[in-house]
Design goal:
- By secondary structure, this protein is an alpha+beta fold.
- About 15% of the residues lie in helices and about 40% in strands.
- The protein has two domains: about 55 residues, N-terminal domain of TfIIb (Single Sheet); about 100 residues, Jelly Rolls.
- It has a five-stranded antiparallel β-sheet.
- The protein binds zinc ion (ZN).
- Zinc ion binds next to loops.
Length: about 170
């Protein structure tokens, strides 16, 4: 006997392919008994048909830091999800973006994240820093993408990604 999967996350996101806000993101919690609790993601864009599916252990939904070293063009195509609660840090580029109140979660590629950052950092990023972001987008710089997420919702879809728990200080 298995329980019905429960919806634990539901949000309308910007689609990484067609860029319209029609990506219906739904996560289900599923009790697979022997395999433990699993989170099934079934995300579907109603505009262009893009689909994202994923299964991961529920236990990973704790405050965590995810790190990915971007070393080649392939790494730039890695799918990532930044939740609305996540901070983005790229030490090599001197970038640190706090989860702003208005900022929404989004799914994108690493390259797409840099594109979004380029839009967002306009205020404090000078020309030199913009050029570095552009170089990073072309795969000319090795850098580390760090997502710090207190909600534990974010993910990087890569076997190279390193996940560490956030140690909360009092
Ligand atoms: Zn779409």
């Amino acid at each position: 006997m298995t329980e019905e999967p429960k919806i634990i996350f539901e949000e309308l996101l910007i689609c990484p392919v067609c860029k319209t806000k029609s990506l219906k993101a739904i996560d289900y919690l599923y009790d697979a008994h022997d395999a433990g609790k699993l989170v099934l993601s079934n995300w579907y864009c109603e505009n262009c048909g893009y689909r994202f599916r994923d299964v991961k252990p529920y236990e990973t939904r704790e405050p965590k830091i995810i790190e990915l070293k971007i070393e080649n063009e392939n790494d730039l195509k890695t799918i990532i999800y930044r939740s609305a609660f996540a901070k983005i840090i790229i030490p090599e580029l001197g970038i640190e973006i706090e989860p702003a109140g208005v900022s929404q979660g989004y799914i994108s590629t690493v390259e797409g994240v840099l594109e979004i950052l380029l839009d967002e950092v306009g205020g404090y990023c000078d020309e030199e820093c913009e050029n570095r972001i552009k170089k990073a987008m072309e795969g000319k710089i090795t850098f580390t993408l760090i997502i710090e997420d207190e909600a534990g919702l974010s993910f990087i879809k890569s076997e190279k990604a390193i996940v560490k728990p956030i140690i909360m200080s009092e």
